[in-house]
Amino acid sequence: MKIEEVQSTTKTQRVAVHTHVKGLGLQPGTGLAQPIGAGLVGQEKAREAAGIVVELIKSKKMAGRALLLAGAPGTGKTALALGIAQELGPKVPFCPMVGSEVYSSEVKKTEILMENFRRAIGLRLKENKEVYEGEVTELTPEETENPLGGYGRTISHVVIGLKTTKGSKQLRLDPSIYEGLQKESVSVGDVIYIEANSGAIKRVGRSDAFATEFDLEAEEYVPLPKGDVHKKKEVVQDVTLHDLDVANAKPPGGQDILSVMGQLVKPKKTEITDKLRNEVNRVVNRYIDQGVAELVPGVLFVDEVHMLDIECFTYLNRALESSLSPIVVFATNRGICTIRGTSDVLSPHGVPVDLLDRMLIIRTMPYSMDEMEHILSIRAQAEGIEVEAEALAAMGEIGARSSLRYAVQMLTPARILAETFGREKVEAGDVREVDILFKDAKQSAQILARSEGWLK
Ligand SMILES: Nc1ncnc2c1ncn2[C@@H]1O[C@H](COP(=O)(O)OP(=O)(O)OP(=O)(O)O)[C@@H](O)[C@H]1O
Ligand SMILES: [Mg+2]
């Protein structure tokens, strides 16, 4: 059987407005919030609380629990959640979604929730594999006449030379491995390893010795491997349960099957069914019991949780009870409102009380004018917009009147305005002009209130 690595199915997302957030900005020893750190300004209490949650997640004491970020619009709930993700690092899965994502005419709501749950649960597989590792010194496919007759020639085997600091070896390999070499586009001078059992090829990078060669593409240069060519090597793989579902749901002929899982779960399905998930769970649990795999509960972030309806909440309650459950972080800006999907059940944040009961709640507070100015200047820097101090102050004022979100959104129009006047820097006048040209939500509502039902 051919075995290769499971492809990651991590969601790519646009978080353009939060690119300046690089973490929570806490002091390393004390966990206290720096007034400005990692792109975050103020909101100290909430950041410190989030820091504690990060510790709990890292020490795996938080699985199956939930956190709610509650606060007015534009107070940094989404920014805070992304800060948590950054602090956790790339090895802990973080799956962001927005409540309204569950509504689709094709897929059931609970199905979408389930998929996101499984994207947020990681598995670290450590295997001691027998490998051949080294720098490729030779790569020659040997051809023969096609044994079935005809005119074609086929590759009968591949001769590959591997070199380490300790020695070198020449291997004669099966032609199926040649495909793997081609897929990884291995050439002489690359450092690779070949798994002895499966024949899977992994290209580690280009050997140091070639570091000076002219190359347009970014290359990773790695040192010549130490030790023997043929050895045992600990191979660590980080995957999520959803990766495994997808890999095993691929129709036959698909190539991505995780080594250990692939042997047990037959990859002959085309759709992720409950049955398949249960099968994956069973195998995963067994591997955890055997100590081969380690569970890495990640974070599922559900923004705008008030968009979920009662059916979703019922499902969430149950899913949080399961043994394979991530930490769920919710965010909302709603006060007391009706729960979607019910006609008249009022509840805080539009979330049923029994689910609220499980949550730790972090409040985010409105910003002072100073803090807004700071955030705006960080944002301006991130977007590469030059802004004069007075213009920042003007935007801070506008932010205090309307919302931070509105003020942040003014940056780009103000820059465009400045550019039309042939200036590089945004001045206070530009900001006022933009404020006259556009309306914020409050102003718009006032106009409507005055206009007796018609937009005059
Ligand atoms: N403390 C902060 N430090 C730096 N930037 C911040 C901070 N708080 C918010 N921001 C930035 O301000 C903008 C608005 O914040 P964000 O989108 O996080 O608000 P929110 O609470 O999620 O609002 P909503 O309830 O409308 O979803 C974003 O660009 C965000 O990155
Ligand atoms: Mg938000």
Automatic annotation (TrEMBL):
Family, similarity comment: Belongs to the RuvB family.
Keywords: ATP-binding, Helicase, Hydrolase, Nucleotide-binding, Nucleus, Transcription, Transcription regulation
Any one GO molecular function term: ATP binding
GO CC annotation terms, alphabetical: nucleus
EC number(s) per entry: 3.6.4.12
PANTHER family, per database record: RUVB-RELATED REPTIN AND PONTIN
The protein, known as: RuvB-like helicase
Keyword GTP-binding in record: no
Organism: Nannochloropsis gaditana (strain CCMP526)
Top-level EC class as recorded in UniProt: hydrolase
Reaction catalysed by this enzyme: ATP + H2O = ADP + phosphate + H(+)
Pfam families xref list: TIP49 (PF06068), TIP49_C (PF17856)
UniProt domain AAA+ ATPase: residue ranges: 63-366
Subcellular location: Nucleus
